[in-house]
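Deliverable D2.4 — example input (structure tokens):
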């Protein structure tokens, strides 16, 4: 009895291992990123966003870790006009100026659109005058309809009075 339980237990464990082993795949381990100071050329250095390349002489430079404690690298680490990040063509100073200019233009454009839509196209000026004219037209039409309705009412009353007189009805004015 105990032998059969032990045998069943081992078969179950072996079956679980085989089934589990067949369904899982071995993930390749990610390649570790190279240390920034081991990269020699600017092109190799700027491929990695955590690295910054600093020119120190004629076409010679050094690749360093980006200083994560600061948003913009300090000049004691590397002068902004000599540092490269993301591309070797544009220096970091020009990149900052360009990005700031683009952000400023976008901010001004959005602000201009908001001011135009809210102030110039809102219910002031031409739009308000247009609404007032429409309200006046509607009031005039309503007054004309009321006047025609009153006129038809008096004509109907006169016809009814005429019919009552014709047939000698004493309640002429009680409608």
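Example output (designed residues):
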């Amino acid at each position: 009895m105990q032998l059969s339980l032990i045998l069943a237990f081992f078969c179950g464990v072996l079956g679980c291992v085989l089934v589990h082993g067949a369904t899982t795949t071995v993930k390749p381990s990610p390649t570790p990123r190279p240390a920034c100071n081991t990269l020699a050329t600017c092109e190799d250095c700027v491929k990695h966003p955590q690295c910054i390349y600093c020119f120190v002489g004629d076409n010679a430079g050094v690749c360093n870790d980006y200083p994560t404690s600061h948003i913009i690298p300090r000049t004691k680490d590397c002068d902004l006009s000599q540092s490269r990040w993301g591309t070797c063509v544009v220096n970091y100073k020009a990149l900052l100026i360009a990005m700031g200019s683009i952000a400023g233009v976008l901010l001004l454009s959005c602000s201009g659109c908001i001011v135009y839509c809210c102030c110039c196209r809102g219910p002031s000026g031409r739009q308000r005058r247009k609404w007032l004219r429409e309200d006046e037209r509607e009031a005039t039409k309503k007054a004309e309809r009321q006047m025609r309705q009153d006129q038809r009412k008096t004509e109907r009353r006169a016809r009814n009075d005429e019919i009552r007189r014709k047939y000698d009805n004493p309640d002429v004015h009680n409608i």
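The helical segments are 2-23, 42-46, 92-120, 126-166.
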